[in-house]
Write a structure and sequence with these properties.
It is a single chain. With 334 residues, this protein is α/β, with parallel strands linked by helices. It folds into 2 domains: 190 residues, Medium-chain alcohol dehydrogenases, catalytic domain (Quinone Oxidoreductase, Chain A, domain 1, Alpha-Beta Complex); 135 residues, NAD(P)-binding Rossmann-like Domain (Rossmann fold, 3-Layer(aba) Sandwich), CATH 3.40.50.720. Helices cover 28% and strands 25% of the residues. The protein contains 10 helices and 15 strands. Strand 12, helix 8 and strand 13 form a beta-alpha-beta unit. The longest helix has 15 residues. The radius of gyration is 20 Å and the shape is globular. The N and C termini lie close together (12 Å).
Length: 334
Amino acid sequence: MKAMILDAPGGLDRLRLVDRPDPGAPGPGMIRVRLHATSLNYHDYGVVAGRMPTRDGRIPMADGAGIVEAVGEGVSEFAAGDPVVSCFFPDWQEGPPRIGDFSRVPGDGIDGYACEFVVAPATAFTRAPKGYDHAEAATITTAGLTAWRSLVVDGGLKAGDRVLVLGTGGVSIWALQIARMMGAEVAVTSSSDEKLDRARSLGAAHIINYRTHPEWGKLVHAWAGEGVNHVIEVGGPGTLAQSIDAVRIGGHIGLIGVLTGFAGDVPTATLMSKQARLQGLIVGSRRMQMEFVRALDEAPCRPVIDRRFALDDLADAFRYQESGDHFGKIAVTF
Protein backbone atom coordinates (compact mmCIF):
# COMPACT_ATOMS: atom_id res chain seq x y z
CA MET A 1 0.00 0.00 0.00
CA LYS A 2 1.03 3.63 -0.44
CA ALA A 3 1.98 5.46 2.73
CA MET A 4 3.55 8.81 3.52
CA ILE A 5 6.31 8.51 6.10
CA LEU A 6 8.40 11.05 8.00
CA ASP A 7 12.14 10.61 8.24
CA ALA A 8 13.71 11.77 11.52
CA PRO A 9 14.35 14.43 12.70
CA GLY A 10 11.42 15.82 10.72
CA GLY A 11 10.81 18.71 8.37
CA LEU A 12 8.55 19.12 5.36
CA ASP A 13 11.34 17.94 3.07
CA ARG A 14 11.57 14.72 5.13
CA LEU A 15 8.16 13.43 4.03
CA ARG A 16 8.39 10.50 1.60
CA LEU A 17 5.78 8.44 -0.25
CA VAL A 18 6.70 4.75 0.05
CA ASP A 19 5.23 1.27 -0.39
CA ARG A 20 4.40 -0.47 2.87
CA PRO A 21 3.12 -4.04 3.37
CA ASP A 22 -0.64 -4.43 3.30
CA PRO A 23 -1.92 -4.74 6.91
CA GLY A 24 -3.97 -7.83 6.01
CA ALA A 25 -7.20 -9.11 7.50
CA PRO A 26 -8.56 -7.86 10.83
CA GLY A 27 -8.22 -10.03 13.91
CA PRO A 28 -10.73 -10.31 16.77
CA GLY A 29 -12.14 -6.92 17.77
CA MET A 30 -10.43 -5.21 14.82
CA ILE A 31 -11.61 -3.58 11.59
CA ARG A 32 -9.89 -3.06 8.25
CA VAL A 33 -10.47 0.43 6.82
CA ARG A 34 -9.77 1.68 3.32
CA LEU A 35 -8.76 5.27 4.04
CA HIS A 36 -9.74 8.06 1.69
CA ALA A 37 -8.96 11.33 3.49
CA THR A 38 -7.19 13.10 6.31
CA SER A 39 -7.10 16.74 7.40
CA LEU A 40 -4.34 18.97 8.71
CA ASN A 41 -4.08 20.22 12.28
CA TYR A 42 -1.56 22.31 14.20
CA HIS A 43 -0.52 19.18 16.09
CA ASP A 44 0.20 17.33 12.84
CA TYR A 45 2.29 20.27 11.68
CA GLY A 46 4.27 20.17 14.93
CA VAL A 47 5.11 16.52 14.35
CA VAL A 48 5.96 16.84 10.65
CA ALA A 49 8.02 20.01 11.17
CA GLY A 50 10.13 18.23 13.81
CA ARG A 51 8.95 20.38 16.72
CA MET A 52 7.36 17.31 18.36
CA PRO A 53 9.89 14.52 17.67
CA THR A 54 8.60 11.08 16.75
CA ARG A 55 10.28 7.88 15.63
CA ASP A 56 11.97 7.55 12.25
CA GLY A 57 9.58 6.36 9.53
CA ARG A 58 6.41 7.40 11.33
CA ILE A 59 3.21 7.59 9.24
CA PRO A 60 1.80 11.02 10.18
CA MET A 61 -1.74 12.42 10.50
CA ALA A 62 -4.19 11.98 13.38
CA ASP A 63 -7.36 12.30 11.28
CA GLY A 64 -8.50 9.44 9.09
CA ALA A 65 -11.77 8.76 7.26
CA GLY A 66 -12.75 5.93 4.97
CA ILE A 67 -14.81 2.78 4.45
CA VAL A 68 -14.80 -0.41 6.49
CA GLU A 69 -13.68 -3.29 4.24
CA ALA A 70 -13.86 -6.13 6.77
CA VAL A 71 -14.55 -6.74 10.46
CA GLY A 72 -12.92 -9.21 12.80
CA GLU A 73 -14.55 -11.71 15.11
CA GLY A 74 -16.67 -10.12 17.81
CA VAL A 75 -17.20 -6.79 16.04
CA SER A 76 -20.89 -5.90 15.85
CA GLU A 77 -20.78 -2.10 15.79
CA PHE A 78 -19.55 -1.89 12.19
CA ALA A 79 -20.05 -3.83 8.96
CA ALA A 80 -18.29 -3.82 5.62
CA GLY A 81 -19.28 -0.70 3.68
CA ASP A 82 -19.75 1.57 6.70
CA PRO A 83 -18.15 5.05 6.44
CA VAL A 84 -16.03 5.68 9.55
CA VAL A 85 -13.74 8.29 11.05
CA SER A 86 -10.85 7.90 13.48
CA CYS A 87 -10.55 8.96 17.13
CA PHE A 88 -7.71 11.23 18.29
CA PHE A 89 -7.30 9.29 21.56
CA PRO A 90 -8.08 5.66 20.59
CA ASP A 91 -7.66 4.52 24.21
CA TRP A 92 -9.92 7.20 25.78
CA GLN A 93 -13.33 5.68 25.31
CA GLU A 94 -15.42 7.71 27.76
CA GLY A 95 -15.42 9.36 31.17
CA PRO A 96 -13.16 12.13 32.47
CA PRO A 97 -9.73 12.83 30.92
CA ARG A 98 -7.05 10.32 31.87
CA ILE A 99 -4.49 10.99 29.13
CA GLY A 100 -2.13 13.96 29.17
CA ASP A 101 0.33 13.11 26.40
CA PHE A 102 0.45 11.98 22.77
CA SER A 103 2.08 8.58 23.24
CA ARG A 104 -0.92 6.79 21.76
CA VAL A 105 -2.13 9.44 19.34
CA PRO A 106 -2.07 8.35 15.67
CA GLY A 107 0.52 10.22 13.67
CA ASP A 108 2.59 10.96 16.78
CA GLY A 109 3.10 8.16 19.28
CA ILE A 110 1.79 5.52 16.86
CA ASP A 111 1.37 5.39 13.08
CA GLY A 112 -1.33 7.62 11.68
CA TYR A 113 -3.58 7.77 8.66
CA ALA A 114 -1.52 9.10 5.73
CA CYS A 115 -1.85 5.68 4.09
CA GLU A 116 -4.27 3.64 2.03
CA PHE A 117 -5.29 0.95 4.53
CA VAL A 118 -5.26 0.39 8.27
CA VAL A 119 -6.22 -2.45 10.60
CA ALA A 120 -7.10 -1.14 14.04
CA PRO A 121 -9.38 -1.85 17.01
CA ALA A 122 -12.99 -1.09 16.18
CA THR A 123 -12.98 1.23 19.19
CA ALA A 124 -10.43 3.49 17.44
CA PHE A 125 -13.18 4.66 15.04
CA THR A 126 -16.74 5.95 15.10
CA ARG A 127 -19.33 6.21 12.38
CA ALA A 128 -18.93 9.22 10.10
CA PRO A 129 -21.70 11.85 9.99
CA LYS A 130 -24.45 11.03 7.50
CA GLY A 131 -24.00 12.62 4.09
CA TYR A 132 -20.42 13.75 4.69
CA ASP A 133 -17.77 12.95 2.12
CA HIS A 134 -14.54 11.49 3.46
CA ALA A 135 -12.66 14.79 3.61
CA GLU A 136 -15.50 16.42 5.54
CA ALA A 137 -15.66 13.48 7.94
CA ALA A 138 -11.91 13.65 8.58
CA THR A 139 -12.25 17.19 9.96
CA ILE A 140 -14.23 16.08 13.01
CA THR A 141 -11.52 13.90 14.63
CA THR A 142 -9.37 16.74 15.97
CA ALA A 143 -10.68 20.20 15.09
CA GLY A 144 -14.39 19.49 15.17
CA LEU A 145 -14.34 17.48 18.38
CA THR A 146 -12.12 20.04 20.12
CA ALA A 147 -14.64 22.79 19.38
CA TRP A 148 -17.57 20.55 20.36
CA ARG A 149 -16.02 19.55 23.67
CA SER A 150 -15.08 23.10 24.62
CA LEU A 151 -18.46 24.61 23.84
CA VAL A 152 -20.92 21.81 24.55
CA VAL A 153 -19.29 19.25 26.87
CA ASP A 154 -17.16 21.55 29.04
CA GLY A 155 -19.00 24.83 28.48
CA GLY A 156 -22.63 23.73 28.49
CA LEU A 157 -23.44 25.94 25.50
CA LYS A 158 -27.10 26.86 25.12
CA ALA A 159 -29.23 28.94 22.79
CA GLY A 160 -28.80 32.66 23.35
CA ASP A 161 -25.24 32.40 24.67
CA ARG A 162 -22.56 34.64 23.23
CA VAL A 163 -19.29 33.15 22.05
CA LEU A 164 -15.92 34.65 21.12
CA VAL A 165 -13.90 32.74 18.52
CA LEU A 166 -10.27 33.70 17.95
CA GLY A 167 -9.12 33.45 14.34
CA THR A 168 -10.46 31.53 11.36
CA GLY A 169 -8.54 28.24 11.44
CA GLY A 170 -10.03 24.78 11.65
CA VAL A 171 -11.07 24.73 15.33
CA SER A 172 -12.31 28.30 15.25
CA ILE A 173 -14.52 27.91 12.19
CA TRP A 174 -15.90 24.64 13.54
CA ALA A 175 -16.67 26.50 16.80
CA LEU A 176 -18.47 29.25 14.85
CA GLN A 177 -20.58 26.64 13.05
CA ILE A 178 -21.38 24.64 16.19
CA ALA A 179 -22.32 27.76 18.12
CA ARG A 180 -24.65 28.91 15.35
CA MET A 181 -26.10 25.39 15.07
CA MET A 182 -26.92 25.58 18.81
CA GLY A 183 -28.53 29.03 18.59
CA ALA A 184 -25.68 31.11 20.03
CA GLU A 185 -24.34 34.46 18.78
CA VAL A 186 -20.68 34.61 17.78
CA ALA A 187 -17.93 37.23 17.59
CA VAL A 188 -14.87 36.43 15.47
CA THR A 189 -11.43 38.06 15.42
CA SER A 190 -8.90 38.02 12.58
CA SER A 191 -6.22 40.22 11.05
CA SER A 192 -7.81 39.75 7.61
CA ASP A 193 -10.90 41.74 6.63
CA GLU A 194 -11.53 39.24 3.82
CA LYS A 195 -11.62 36.34 6.28
CA LEU A 196 -13.86 38.34 8.60
CA ASP A 197 -16.30 38.88 5.75
CA ARG A 198 -16.33 35.12 5.14
CA ALA A 199 -16.96 34.54 8.85
CA ARG A 200 -19.92 36.92 8.69
CA SER A 201 -21.30 34.94 5.75
CA LEU A 202 -21.22 31.86 8.01
CA GLY A 203 -23.31 33.63 10.63
CA ALA A 204 -20.87 35.63 12.77
CA ALA A 205 -22.79 38.45 14.44
CA HIS A 206 -19.76 40.58 15.27
CA ILE A 207 -16.33 40.78 13.59
CA ILE A 208 -13.16 42.53 14.78
CA ASN A 209 -9.81 43.05 13.07
CA TYR A 210 -7.40 42.64 15.97
CA ARG A 211 -4.64 44.58 14.19
CA THR A 212 -6.91 47.58 13.72
CA HIS A 213 -8.31 47.20 17.25
CA PRO A 214 -5.53 45.89 19.55
CA GLU A 215 -7.82 46.20 22.61
CA TRP A 216 -10.34 43.83 21.04
CA GLY A 217 -11.18 42.15 24.35
CA LYS A 218 -12.92 45.25 25.67
CA LEU A 219 -14.77 45.70 22.37
CA VAL A 220 -16.09 42.15 22.51
CA HIS A 221 -17.13 42.64 26.13
CA ALA A 222 -19.07 45.76 25.15
CA TRP A 223 -20.73 43.99 22.22
CA ALA A 224 -21.91 41.17 24.48
CA GLY A 225 -23.26 43.58 27.09
CA GLU A 226 -21.78 41.90 30.15
CA GLY A 227 -19.12 39.90 28.31
CA VAL A 228 -19.28 36.62 26.41
CA ASN A 229 -20.26 33.28 27.93
CA HIS A 230 -17.57 31.30 26.11
CA VAL A 231 -14.17 31.97 24.54
CA ILE A 232 -12.42 29.64 22.09
CA GLU A 233 -8.85 30.56 23.02
CA VAL A 234 -6.37 29.24 20.43
CA GLY A 235 -3.63 31.83 20.84
CA GLY A 236 -2.30 31.17 24.32
CA PRO A 237 -0.21 33.68 26.30
CA GLY A 238 -0.28 36.38 23.63
CA THR A 239 -4.09 36.59 23.54
CA LEU A 240 -5.24 35.26 26.91
CA ALA A 241 -5.35 38.66 28.62
CA GLN A 242 -7.68 39.98 25.94
CA SER A 243 -9.86 36.87 26.20
CA ILE A 244 -10.17 37.41 29.96
CA ASP A 245 -11.23 41.01 29.26
CA ALA A 246 -13.88 39.71 26.87
CA VAL A 247 -15.42 37.03 29.10
CA ARG A 248 -18.30 37.73 31.44
CA ILE A 249 -18.34 37.12 35.18
CA GLY A 250 -18.68 33.38 35.65
CA GLY A 251 -17.88 32.70 31.98
CA HIS A 252 -15.83 29.94 30.40
CA ILE A 253 -12.56 30.12 28.46
CA GLY A 254 -11.50 26.98 26.60
CA LEU A 255 -7.70 27.02 26.32
CA ILE A 256 -7.19 25.03 23.14
CA GLY A 257 -4.06 26.34 21.44
CA VAL A 258 -0.65 27.87 22.02
CA LEU A 259 -0.12 29.65 18.71
CA THR A 260 1.57 32.60 20.45
CA GLY A 261 3.86 30.52 22.67
CA PHE A 262 4.00 27.94 25.43
CA ALA A 263 4.34 30.24 28.46
CA GLY A 264 3.60 33.80 29.47
CA ASP A 265 1.99 36.15 31.96
CA VAL A 266 -1.61 35.57 33.01
CA PRO A 267 -3.59 38.46 34.59
CA THR A 268 -4.59 36.33 37.54
CA ALA A 269 -6.27 39.15 39.47
CA THR A 270 -8.58 39.91 36.55
CA LEU A 271 -9.33 36.24 36.03
CA MET A 272 -10.13 35.90 39.71
CA SER A 273 -12.38 38.95 39.75
CA LYS A 274 -14.24 37.61 36.73
CA GLN A 275 -14.67 34.29 38.57
CA ALA A 276 -14.24 32.77 35.12
CA ARG A 277 -13.30 29.17 34.43
CA LEU A 278 -10.12 28.69 32.39
CA GLN A 279 -10.34 25.13 31.03
CA GLY A 280 -7.38 23.52 29.28
CA LEU A 281 -8.32 20.70 26.93
CA ILE A 282 -6.95 18.35 24.27
CA VAL A 283 -9.62 17.06 21.85
CA GLY A 284 -11.95 14.53 23.55
CA SER A 285 -13.09 10.95 24.10
CA ARG A 286 -14.70 8.49 21.71
CA ARG A 287 -18.02 8.92 23.53
CA MET A 288 -17.87 12.68 22.94
CA GLN A 289 -17.19 12.05 19.26
CA MET A 290 -20.17 9.72 18.98
CA GLU A 291 -22.41 12.37 20.55
CA PHE A 292 -20.98 14.99 18.18
CA VAL A 293 -21.71 12.77 15.18
CA ARG A 294 -25.29 12.27 16.38
CA ALA A 295 -25.74 16.04 16.59
CA LEU A 296 -24.32 16.52 13.09
CA ASP A 297 -26.66 13.85 11.74
CA GLU A 298 -29.58 16.05 12.77
CA ALA A 299 -28.18 19.44 11.73
CA PRO A 300 -27.62 21.07 8.32
CA CYS A 301 -23.97 21.77 9.12
CA ARG A 302 -21.05 20.95 6.84
CA PRO A 303 -17.40 21.77 7.62
CA VAL A 304 -15.56 24.45 5.67
CA ILE A 305 -12.68 22.99 3.66
CA ASP A 306 -10.45 25.62 2.12
CA ARG A 307 -8.39 23.36 -0.17
CA ARG A 308 -7.91 19.67 -0.91
CA PHE A 309 -4.54 18.14 -1.78
CA ALA A 310 -3.45 14.71 -2.99
CA LEU A 311 -1.47 12.41 -0.68
CA ASP A 312 1.62 12.92 -2.87
CA ASP A 313 1.34 16.64 -2.15
CA LEU A 314 1.14 16.40 1.65
CA ALA A 315 4.22 18.61 2.08
CA ASP A 316 2.61 21.28 -0.11
CA ALA A 317 -0.54 21.05 2.03
CA PHE A 318 1.54 21.78 5.12
CA ARG A 319 3.28 24.66 3.36
CA TYR A 320 -0.13 26.12 2.66
CA GLN A 321 -1.05 25.69 6.34
CA GLU A 322 2.25 27.33 7.29
CA SER A 323 1.36 30.38 5.19
CA GLY A 324 -1.71 31.06 7.33
CA ASP A 325 -3.76 31.88 4.22
CA HIS A 326 -6.35 29.15 4.81
CA PHE A 327 -9.87 29.63 6.13
CA GLY A 328 -11.25 26.60 7.95
CA LYS A 329 -9.72 23.22 7.19
CA ILE A 330 -7.17 21.83 4.73
CA ALA A 331 -7.80 18.26 3.57
CA VAL A 332 -5.83 15.53 1.81
CA THR A 333 -7.74 12.97 -0.23
CA PHE A 334 -6.53 9.67 -1.67
